[in-house]
Specification:
Elements lengths: L10 E5 L4 H12 L4 E5 L6 H12 L7 E5 L13 H13 L4 E5 H6 L13 E8 L20 E7 L3 H13 L3 E6 L4 H10 L4 E4 L11 H7 L10 E7 L7 H12 L3 E7 L3 H5 L2 H4 L1 E6 L13 E2 L1 H6 L4 E4 L5 E4 L2 H10 L8 E5 L3 H12 L3 E5 L3 H11 L2 E2 L12 E4 L23 E4 L8 H8 L3 E3 L2 H16 L5 H18 L9
Parallel strand pairs: 1-2, 1-8, 2-3, 3-4, 4-5, 5-6, 6-7, 9-10, 9-11, 12-14, 15-16, 15-18, 16-17, 18-19, 19-20
Antiparallel strand pairs: 11-13, 13-14
Length: 511
């Protein structure tokens, strides 16, 4: 058993608010999910609010609850503007009301007599924290906690510029006892979720306002990613792209794993350079992944195997990692496009315009062409448009011709109109001369383009109708099991509704 216990107790809920009333509300929410809670006293707006919160906490009798007090000064990346003496005063007050742990930053420890906090009556157990908000520094092979200021545990939170940075940090957790690894930033998010599996004593997750870049909410950490249940036997999957942080794919695939009892987790990987991700596959135990823009075509050169259709399309959105570490690629976007359109129209003999010429556009063009439709391509990059048109036996349509040309269907395969720029449309109302418009963007559910089409009484198809079947095909390819389609659809639609009414989730999710 680690210093913070087992199970959910290894997930530390971060409570941070300006008032004692809001902080206490967050604490009550946190206790529903985990017994371990951090009180960010530095976030409270005044000493009066700090005193009020601690008086409230003294009255709480929670069996098994573990409280950690933090009063991080501005110099160490926190919000507390007081002196070291004032910081220590509040940590001592926290002990008086039952906080078993306190977090002391290395900047404070360096200025204390003897570089130890043990001469002060703070909480009996001390976590020494080191933060680097700009990079992941050079790290030793192993850390011996007692030698660092006579403390009980040590935390290093560092900004991960690359996935490799985050891998280095969590690897240190596996070699050091009572050590907490916290990769910061969106690039470090997957490793942050996997940290407990790698040996970190704690993983942090905010209840309310995010207190550090790349954090995952407490509810998602516990219920979506199940960070406290992951082991070395857990298979890791994910989506790679840029942007990718708010993809719906984790909701869809993790729901599938939970529903079928599959020991696997699906994570979002922000990838700037594909090579950086490729090098992380082995150390993180990745067994497969989805690919979204802009990497669908770049990934081809890293594959050992590629199915004939994906090779012909020239883009992959799904990769299986073989047992020998080699990569096998395929394309399920193709399936998604066909299934989304076939419920609304007859493709054979129709004329379809594909707006765009990237990886998603290629899959869409091959899908409709193979279904017997005449394909037209309109794209900003004329060379790409011509190449794609040749590949599918179609034609290139210049943008200016859209005011007069007529089609049975128009498919938007560009990112224009994707959140957070959902107030713009890739096409004008005067360019929509067709019976049906489909937008491959699935977030928002109803894009500006679809709104314009609906006003013209044109039938519409949301990108979610492509997203779901392509994701189901991916899930079945990875697991070899029948996907729980109903549960996966329900979870995705629920997430979209939450985004619409709560504003919590956003982003592109064509993977």
């Amino acid at each position: 058993m680690g210093v913070f216990g087992t199970g959910r107790g290894r997930i530390c809920a971060v409570t941070a608010a300006a008032t004692a009333a809001e902080m206490s509300r967050q604490m009550r929410m946190a206790w529903r999910e985990t017994p371990t809670v951090e009180l960010r006293l530095d976030w409270l707006e005044s000493d009066g609010e700090r005193a009020k919160l601690l008086r409230w906490l003294k009255k709480q009798k929670r069996k098994g609850a573990v409280s950690m007090a933090t009063c991080r000064r501005v110099e160490a990346g926190g919000k507390f503007k007081g002196s070291i003496e004032a910081e220590l005063f509040w940590l001592m007050q926290a002990r008086e009301v039952g906080c078993e742990w306190c977090d002391v930053e290395v900047e404070t420890l360096r200025e204390l007599p003897g570089k130890t906090v043990r001469t002060y009556p703070v909480s009996s157990r001390v976590l020494l924290s080191v933060h680097d908000f700009e990079r992941t520094p050079a790290l030793p092979r192993k850390i011996k906690v007692p030698s660092h200021g006579d403390v009980d545990a040590m935390k290093i939170a560092a900004y991960a510029r690359t996935i490799g940075d985050s891998v280095r940090l969590v690897a240190l957790a596996g070699r050091s006892k009572n050590f907490v690894a916290v990769p910061m930033g969106e690039t470090g998010l997957p490793a942050r979720i996997l940290a407990l599996r790698e040996g970190s004593a704690l993983a942090y997750a905010p209840v309310g306002e995010v207190t550090a870049p790349g954090q995952v909410s407490l509810r998602e950490m516990v219920h979506l990613y199940r960070a406290h249940e992951l082991t070395r036997r857990t298979e890791v999957y994910g989506v790679i792209g840029n942007p990718v942080g708010h993809s719906l794919s984790p909701v869809m695939h993790n729901t599938g794993f939970i529903a079928r009892g599959v020991d696997a987790v699906y994570l979002p990987f922000l990838v700037h350079q594909v090579k950086d991700f490729i090098e992380a596959i082995e150390p993180l135990g990745i067994r497969g992944f989805s690919i979204t823009q802009p990497h669908k075509q770049t990934m081809l050169k890293y594959l050992k195997e590629c199915d004939a259709l994906a090779a012909e399309i020239g883009a992959v959105n799904t990769v299986v990692v073989r047992r020998d570490g080699s990569l096998a690629g395929s394309n399920t976007d193709y399936v998604g496009v066909i299934r989304a359109l076939e419920t609304k129209m007859r493709l054979r003999g129709s004329r379809v315009l594909i707006f765009g010429a990237g990886g998603a556009a290629r899959a869409a063009a091959f899908a409709v062409a193979r279904s017997g439709a005449a394909v037209a391509i309109c794209a900003r990059r004329e060379t790409q448009a011509k190449e794609l048109a040749r590949a599918v036996g179609g034609e290139v349509i210049p943008r200016r011709a859209l005011r007069t040309e007529r089609f049975d269907a128009i498919l938007n395969a560009t990112p224009v109109g994707m959140h957070p720029h959902s107030d713009v449309s890739p096409l004008l109302a005067s360019e929509l001369h067709c019976r049906l418009v489909m937008d491959l963007i699935s977030r928002p559910l109803r894009t500006k383009l679809l709104e314009i089409a609906a006003k013209k009484r044109i039938s519409t198809v949301s990108g979610i109708e492509m997203f779901l079947p392509q994701g189901v095909a991916q899930w079945e390819l990875w697991t070899g099991k029948k996907a729980p389609e109903t549960e996966m659809r329900r979870a995705v639609m629920g997430a979209l509704r939450a985004m619409k009414y709560g504003g919590k989730r956003s982003g592109r999710s064509r993977a």
